[in-house]
Structures
1.
Amino acid sequence: MSVETRQSPPTFRMPAGFNGLLPALILIVLFFVVPVLALLLRSVTEPEPGLQNYAALLGDGTYARVFFNTFLVASVVTIVTVLVAFPVAWMLAIMPSALASIVFGVIILSMWTNLLTRTYAWMVLLQRTGVINRTLMAAGIIDQPLPLINNLTGVTIGMVYIMLPFMILPLVGTLRAIDPMTLRAAALCGASPFQAFRRILLPLSLPGVAAGGLMVFVMSLGYFVTPALLGGTSNMMLAEMIAQMIQSLLNWGLGSAAAFILLVVTMALYALQLRLVGARRMSGGI
Amino acid sequence: MTQPFLSIRNLRKTFGAIVAVHDVTLEIPRGEFLTFLGPSGSGKSTTLYAIAGFQDPSSGDVQLEGKSLLAVPSHKRNIGMVFQRYTLFPHLTVAENVAFPLRVRRRPEAEVKKKVADMLALVRLESFATRLPGALSGGQQQRVALARALAYDPPILLMDEPLSALDKKLREEIQGEIRRIHRETGVTILYVTHDQEEALHLSDRIALFRDGRIEQTGSGEDLYLRPATDFVAGFIGNSNFLAAEHLDTTDGTATIRLADGSVISGVRANGTFGNGQKTRLMIRPEAFGMERSPASAELNVEIVDVAFYGERRRIVARTAAGEGVDIRPTSAAMPSQDVSPCSRQVFFDPAAAFLFPA
């Protein structure tokens, strides 16, 4: 019998599914990659060629404070979000699925509500004569209004509230994959609830915490609306500073350099997380 | 009277309107291998979970050496358990899994190391110490689970269908391991299974569960040779039930009339029956012989089919009244020329036949 064994000459082939990616890819190149490159170009050419914009940003104490404050807010928001989201995610993971979908609905619904509306709502609640302060004073718990707005507290409250779904959703996925029987086994082995949490549940849920945490941290780094409305002048964040440089001071070079630094830091963090999580997967752990 | 080691007293558990365990009372001496056997939903796992502390009983008590366990949370009960599903901690190595119960008890590191080595030797997995559970087969994982459950020398080991996820060959192998470990450690084992062969093979004693109650407790032989109820007779081993009319009972042996009209005396009566009461006669398939002996009773059957199963033959037969009979003589007792379909007499010892209410 004769079998045709002619091999087609090696040709370069696009990976399967590439064609479907094309529209999105074009969009991203046109409206993200090109502007970013333009930004980079401006940051090293305006007002004159050179790295003086970067030198100014990294050398100046005022700008350094803004950078520091940005990372501080993002870190605090991320930590508080993890702390608040974990119990919620755990309840969602173990609760009956009918009930869980209702709670999920509530969480998703909050994401669909306009961001500005939600932030203004917090202003109403948090200000000196706001609902919270009045209630606490009427109840006799405090006699001076608490400083809840125009400071780190206000920014943290407002941003945690907005970031929660981004933390809860990946975490529920990870927690649902953990067999509750494993925790019963830990209990019978003699582990107190706290030991079972620290030695079993927490390590097993770490990939979800890392994924959600990174997302929240990165989003917080570049957040604009909530810090602008709930924060004070003394703790300005990077996004606000960039807006000010470009809109008010018309200093495109400095603004571009700041934006570019933010982008690089974000990407570095993402790469770091990929490495850490990837390395754990390679070793066979979860 | 000496105090029992573990005692379960009038245990009852309800889930809403559903009664999972009606009323279970059991006393278990130290070092015993007791199996809870029964169909699914018979309450055996619920009883085990009450001992483990995963489910609070609705009423009743569980006592270890005279002290109630009910107020003690799971993690302070000091009970070992192997679960149906694989419950090893996936992020810890085999050695770390076995060390876990010792680490949470803050035992000194030298002791932990030694105990882990001993336990892995006990389940013969020394060379797997640094592997993660995901890299082990199901049987190996259950052996690690066994090592983990025994690492802290618990007085009681609970096993909830630990072999049900394994294939038959592996199951038999690990059954052998479990018997050996029971012998070597002397730990008291409560074992849950729905597999009667597993129960017969492993246990000192079997508690047969049905609908949240214990139908009979006894050795495998007791349950097989002296079933207390028709449910036990039907659940353990194979059995034939023939409709019978009770004629008379004296000294625990009864005379009955079968549906084909034949009268048989000397069968064992399980209960008291009125004259003329409808009853059922239970005969094991392997209790039938092909040859008459002085004490034997006879049964006229029509042989429908004969199949060869190695050491035994399996005969599908029918009585004159149309009742199906399963007969399993040894192959040696029934030479191959006898195997063609025909009508003939088969024989059984009436003392190995049991009368139950219809």
2.
Amino acid sequence: MRKAYKFIGYLSIVFVMLAGITAGAGRTIDKLEFPPMNKIEMPEVDKVQLDNGIMLYILEDHELPIVRASVRLAAGDFLSPPDKVGLGDITGTVMRTGGTARMTGDEIDEALEAIGASVEVNIGATSGRAGMNILLEYADTGLEILADVLRTPRFDQDKIDLAKNQMRTEISSRNDDPFQVCVREFKKVIYGQESPYARHTEYSTVNGITREDMIDFHRKYISPENVMIAVWGDFKKEEMITKVKKYFEDWGKGAGLVPQLPEVKYEFKPGVYYAEKDNVTQSNVLIGHIGGLTGDPDFFALTVANNVLGGSFGSRMFNEVRSKKGLAYSTGGNFSSNISYPGIYYNYVITKLESTVEATEAVLHEIRRMQTDPPTEEELERAKSSYLNSFVFNFDSKGEIINRMMTYDYYDFPQDFLFTVKDKIEKVTAEDVVDVARRRFHPDEMKIVVVGKADQFDKPLSILGAVDTIDITIPSGEVEEEVVINEETLAKGMELLKLAADACGGVDNYMKVKAVSSESDVVLVLPQGEMAISASAISVLPDKSKEIMNTPMGEIITVTDGETGWMKQGPNVVDMTSEQIESSKKELFRNIMHLFQNLDNPEYQAVFVASEDFRGSQADIVKVMSADGAESFKLILDSETHMPIGKMFFGETMMGPGNLTQIISDYREISGIKVPFSVIIEADGKKSAEIKTKDLKINPEIPEGTFDKP
Amino acid sequence: MKQLRSAFFTLAIMALAMISSAAAFDFSEIEKQVVEYKLDNGLTIIMLPRHDAPVISFVTHVNAGCTDDPMGSMGMAHMFEHMAFKGTEEIGTTDIKKEKKWMAEEDRIFALIMEERTKGPLADSARLAALTEELAAATDSAEQYVVTNEFGQIVSREGGVGLNAGTSMDYTQYYLNYPSNKLELWMAMESDRFAHPVLRELFNEKNVVAEERRSRITSSPSGKLFWGEYIGLAFNAHPYGKCLIGEMSEIQNYNRPTMMKQFETYYVPRNIAVGIVGDVDPDEVIRLAEKYFGKIKDRPEPPPLMIDEEYPFGMRQATIRDNSQPMFITGYRIPSVRHPDFVALDALASYLGSGRTSALYKDLVKEKKSAVSVSAFTGFPGRKYPTLFSIFCIPSNDFSNTDNEEIILAEIEKVRNELIPEEELAKIKAQAKAAFINTLGSNSGMASQLVSYYFYKGDWRELFKEIDRVNALTAEDIKRVAEKYLDPDKRVVAYLEKPVEDENN
């Protein structure tokens, strides 16, 4: 009995060991065999041309009582002039939100909401689209609004302002994600800084866009010769054609065809580009060159070759760079293509700073190996199936299919293209892969873009080639205005500052201030309404400060000592970025108390600008500047009392950089100096915040540990 | 001019809406294609074949949510949802035997920790510290066998998109879409994770959930208001009054033996339905479901929760003092989704406070400018059991909670005494219809609705009857439910107010 038991035990050990050896291959899911993909059925789409030339694509689909429309617009942001990048984009947005000849934007919102419908317009870099989704019985309402939005937009100014604010907000956060930074800069390296395929908005280009520009853009490019319309849903074809004709056929021709997309001129040449970004522990690296066209005869072999090399799980980069060398958490690549212009070819690796160069070299090694080592049968199989697996999601909605048809027709691209893909991908051989890699990959002429912190790299980047540095600082878009600087204006400026300091209690009293604490009520004016929060602050001069804001989302604490800083929201504590510290230094520069303590400091210069009216009071304007001219703000002093009643400067608003005005009042005397208890802040002429101080103490006791990081 | 145009528009909408009730679409064609099949172990499969594109949406609906969590371990349903992505005995590990050995070691140490912790203030802190260190070492040992996120990696390699899940008071749903030739892969992986859960990386994941609680409840004023005060006031006996994510101390107590016991009671085939919509052959689905899900052992249906709490005897209120934007939520007890009045209550919520054209929004936000936001809704915190009709309001700067509360109460008295305008009723019907039809158009939306209705209403066919019920509503129905349920004397209200000013300051 005992013997038998032991025997069984022994057997099971053998079994377990065997299972261990074949782990992976023994799993249920690894034994599964999948049937071939079901055939993709293409719906029969009819095409009708309207009298004004518009091509109408029409498809009956009776499953649900809905009507949808998609209008392809040939207009894209590529048509925007270089100093107004973003014009096409914002024109699309405001066509929908800014009202039409018959209705305001809000009325359109209400009308659509009442029937559970939607109409949207979006203009991208190379083309645009307007869409409609509506219940069958309201098809007329929907088509009418869609036609109005395309034909008679009226671009109400308040909606333009809102859209511009949204664009500025996007600009202000564009450096947050290092991978996004890397892709953006890589595109500029490949296509060129000014290329419509790579360029992007700046504060200056957005600020420069006017309502007239938008009206002009609309008039020139949104016209029958530049649109294609598709309508699909639960209707009888003939009836829908009549309806579409009713709303679109009397749309008179415009200014002609939209110009063709510009050509891409690319020269194969190596290059290494470095963009510094702090607050990162990893480098993001993109390695590649120009990609190809979708219609390229090499498209199929390139797709397979790319998947062998960098197509996610099981690819060579995944196995060698990620798994075996353990160099990266994320690595892969893409040979991207477009119908109308060449895509980009890139391989990426996200690796810890200390292995930046090693990981880049490992990727380059794998690219080279593609030109010599043909893929194994298994590699080839995985490469093909991973493409074909996700391929089907190209066809999972009628909208996608019909939109693609319009795009293909617009560029005279063969409609059956995608149906040839499956066969051609399957026919690609190991030899084809090596051949195409030799011809189309240029490992010795790669552009390498690195976003990270060079002082922590394993080796200098120059090992990879001569390094160009890219500055990703977001240009503020500030417009410098002329100020006359001479002995006279400088002297008068300083004199006015001294008068101001005297009026506020005198420099001697200011010099006694070592610390300040305050409690305030703050009202923030947000796009969705006003929000009241309370704030308290403690500062130890010159540059230590702690601010606590109580918001509906919780408490936000910000602490800085001028060189470093951190913020705490809920359980999360993050270090301030260098931009945030920079911004708190600027704030200190503009601090009046700090200014009055530094009137003898040669770092501060004051220039008299003008005497003029400020909010109903006669005022002297003094521009306060740092000696190097890098920092400046305008201090507005009451001509009679010499008290500061305002400040004007260029700085961060909630919607990105803009012109800020502070209106300062309600002075109260504390410890011999006069302190304003009311500050209203205006951003680009609109009230953005109001601070009412409830209590302020000079030289309070500072509790121990006030500035300690949790 | 602007006034005129608006008036014209309201008329136009009215006219359009009138047509809508006349022309009814026949949904029975879709309804007829739905196939329901119950496996021997009680697991239900509801399929809707739709061959437009070779893709399938899958939704696994487990009819267990926070209301089924055991006392002392609230939030465990949510924790289990997190664990379901950690893999199976075959996926996510390099050596399941060794990994399990270390997991058992974790469990042994954690039992000792719990034993010590229950002593409360008398606990031996040195012993606790030593045990905690031991636990961390065991966790490290277990995790050396873990293949991080392998489950998700396989899904994406094989062409799956939209891998996700959600836990509510009433249920837990798991979502995924695949190309249709991966039907068997989904069957194999999905059945495996619910047949043999391994609860991998439990002790680290508890920290993730604890962080989630901190950010969603503790450091969020509205989180505290909704989950901390409001539902707690509204329910004395029913678990609808508990916090979905559990108390912090409860999260700390989660352990494998309790979770497995809970799993074995509630994740039983009779309590699970899968919705499969897309390019499928029902016979093939049934064959594969028998093969994979059929292996799961039949277990008894979980015990029913039978607490029919009496309606409040009076008004209940709570106030949080917090230095943040004031806001409040008020509510009235209403029956569960199974009650015939629920449809009218939903319509009433839509009339009062859904979207930018609703009655309260127009009155408070647009006209009086007394609030920046106001909304009315049913179904919070759940709808399987008697629940709440809620109105949530954020006052604007120069107005208080009570200013707005007065206006809202007046508006509610109005709907209890007067009929709502016909064009408003027409709007509600049009919106409900559009929302319903758009759901029908989406494979994943449809899969989710079919299984939800199966458990909520006992039959997926109820989904198709819903729109008829909305269309049958009259203004009288809405007035009647407002009168019946929105009783001002049996109301619950939770305020978030600024701290009281200290006079001496």
3.
Amino acid sequence: MSMIEFHDVQKYYGDFQALKDINLTVEAGETVVLIGPSGSGKSTLIRTINGLEPIQEGKLIVNGYDLADKKTDPNKIRKDVGMVFQHFNLYANKTVLQNIMLAPKIVLKRPDEENREFAMSLLKKVGLESKADSYPRQLSGGQQQRIAIARSLAMKPKCLLFDEPTSALDPEMIDDVLNVMKDIARDSSMTMLVVTHEMGFAREVGDRVIFMDAGQILEDDTKEQFFDGEPTNERARQFLSKIIVHK
Amino acid sequence: MIHIFATQWQSLLYGLGQTLLCSIIALFFSLIIGSLFAIFEIMPNKLMRIIGRVYVEIFRNIPLLVITMFFFVVLPLYVTKINGFTAGTIGLTIYTSAFIAETVRSGIQSVDEGQMEGALSNGLSFWQSMRFIVLPQAFKIVIPPLGNQFINLVKNSSVLAFVAGFDLMYQGNMIANDTLQTMPTFFAVGILYLIITMPLSYYMRHLEKKLA
């Protein structure tokens, strides 16, 4: 079964059309990288997948639930679809450990002992065991983002969405976060959708690359097609050449 | 004034007790009702937002005395008779809750939106996100203005005097009429109000520092 299916999805902010004729299928276990200039709708697209942005037309089926149906409770999807944000969005009033343990405790009713052990194992995985009792404001951006990833993983999601996870970070912190994400992509069967400008990440662990501009999907290629061949779309070629020059 | 305290301490103490009781009850319920309507005002559901807005706009724009009189005079005509203390406490609760709703709403809106989005995408429901993540941060921000509302509430409880609520103000009036010692009586009453409001004000400051 596909994890995510967009069928002719349209999304408007008032008169402005943010997503145009989106058709996209993501299979379970795939790692898909979304690129494109700012304002192209990548973030909007990824935010519709867990119901943070409603869509106005079309069908959007995530993990078997139709998000376009008003009767669908987005909460049912969010249990299985985690999200990592550009600005981390860690709970400012909770310690690192509490951040990770809160949702499993309340939503999944995971027993305390098991919850704590799993949270600590995730902290170890992201290399921040020593920060269990710190508050988010005491951590660097890179550390906060790794905690945010651990918090999402604590729900044992089937799918993880990343909305520009490294764009707000100092250059030196980016690798730490990318390494954690690469580990997840390699070691787990989780579906990953990643909005990013990190082409190295896309090359290394991406299965597919999607290029968006002006609310539309212009390219949907395998990684090999996109990087080693040539994107067929002129706008995508342009964009790609600029990014590669920067590298 | 010492003479007033010495001879009238029973009435004054009773009044102080009624004022304190009314204030505590009204504070407790107006905080709950106010927070609830504050949440209504920012809910995604439009109908709930309208309900919240209408409640706040109606009750913060009608004089407290009018609301209280409604419960003391109008309601008994059609429904059931309630005593002055109850009518005053209900009036005070409703009136104050409208102001608390505005205060708490501003607090909720000053919490970064990402906190709610983070909680929602983590699988928490709207109400769970409010309770565990947004409200604790919002209350911390609005402690100073909330303190003002609490102090206003204690002082506004003097509305009980109009509906025979036997509060401090009511007792002061009675004593002044009986003894004709107007100035010392109201000095004494003022001091007794300060005995409630000053510690409250001090405590809110303390809370503000502690949570900062």
4.
Amino acid sequence: MRKAVNVKIYLKRKTLICYYCYHDSFINTYIKDNMTLALSTDYLAKTYSNNLEALKGINLSVEQGDFFALLGSNGAGKTTAIGIISGLLKSTSGEVEINGLNQKNHSNEVKKMVGLMPQEFNFNPHEPNIEILINQAGYFGIPRKEAKIQAEVLLKKMELWDRRFDVAQSLSGGMKRRLMLARALIHKPKILILDEPTAGVDVEIRQSMWKYLTQLNNEGMTIILTTHYLEEAESLCRNIAILNNGEIVEQSNMKKLLARAKRQVIIIDTIEKISGQIEISDCDCEVIDENTLQVSQGEGVSISDVVGSLSEQNIQISHLRSSQNRLEALFLSLTT
Amino acid sequence: MWIAYKTIVIKEILRFVRIWVQTIVPPVITTSLYLLIFGGLMGSRIGQMQGIEYIDFIVPGIILMTVIMQSYANTVSSFFMTKYNNSFEELLVSTTPNSIILLGFVSGGIARGFCVGLAVTFTISFFVEIKAFSLLIITVTFFLTSIMFALAGFINAVFARTFDDISIIPNFVLLPLTYLSGMFYSIDILPSFWRALSAFNPIYYMMDAFRLGFLGIGSVELWKAFLVPISMIIVLTLVANALLNRGVSIKTE
């Protein structure tokens, strides 16, 4: 939808009429040819000195302003890809472009546009929190005075202002993650790369981080997220790429990908005891216990169809939940 | 670039000042002990060395040894720690060029060498009257020595994988070379073979120049004494820069 809107605007401006602009492949080609992508990789490959082929020539495309999920199981190559994009690692071959600039030819401009929040804590634990931010700004050439102002804004946003003079090692796991997020944002990057940002973070802080990230994205920042919490990717991201063994096995729009999840299994708790066999057309039903029913939805069957059918059989529902995250099911089918 | 350089230097200075009990106090105590034992107790029995009272003779050596050890220790420990806790990634993702990173860390080493050297000199002034024959020679020798050993410490840290690796060179190479550089004696009193061997010890030249700066006595021509550290600084800078550019032990190959 977003792609379509972007293309429509572009076409209007150019006073062109195109009847095929909603065709998927056309849109993808059109956008690639005419719009600067926030990130694109061209056959990006990485083989480590121990001959481990971490990336086997991946082609990633992330639009400007996108909230993009980069998923994959452990060792799939996510952190390697992020490492190369952010300048931590050297690629074996292939190219990276950030906002149309080649990483090798415009190293500094590219680095200024990228903010990285890595998976592992990578700050000096003996340094005061505010110093970590001010120093990072200094490495990007931001004057100390200006850096102090920006650090104050970010530390307040991350609810760490009261702990600004404490050393980083005194912070809890969640606080350290927020400190790393603040550090990634200190030089006001255009693209924010988050490698497992909410790992080990409690629910309350995770929710507030999601809210903040959504706000940043709404303000125009491109966000690339890797996470093991698939519900996090599902709720936040618009586009997705799935890596498996160093290759992209799927790159698509999140909604389209989820629509491919043909069967969804739902668990239904009933008010009264279930007696006898339950039948719902095009669904597989299994009675788990006297008050619990598992329904595997057939293709084209909606929740309301299921609820309606149960109601016709005089079964009243007290609670209904999905047994498995749809993205999780897809993810497993693509990576195993 | 200037802001990035300033940031690294401030960070480095704050780092050793924050742990002053570990960085500044021990050399001051060691110096006091050296002066008490070698200068006060044994010095009076030794008498004079090259026509100078023994306690006065060893003062430049003690100060220079402190500068050498502190400049080296600062870069080796600081850079190794950034590798150890992965905080070097903060620099890798930034726009700071490798040459500025190197210059920043080396400047940190010089700053610590200067601060601790000054603290030691101040302590020594309670025991003996410090004379300065040429402040210029003292300053130049200090900078050359400090830069050289800060660079050496940096290279050591690049290759170091464990904490043991950062203490091997200071204990098994630097300290013996310092003691054998004529810190406590004049090279002229050595048998010819050992005197010839001392010519291969770079610290000998710096020690000689530093003593000349303080006491006005020296065995080596001044240009030679400066040429050795300058040559070594050029070589070490090229090596350190090449290591950084190649990302040795910093970027996973």
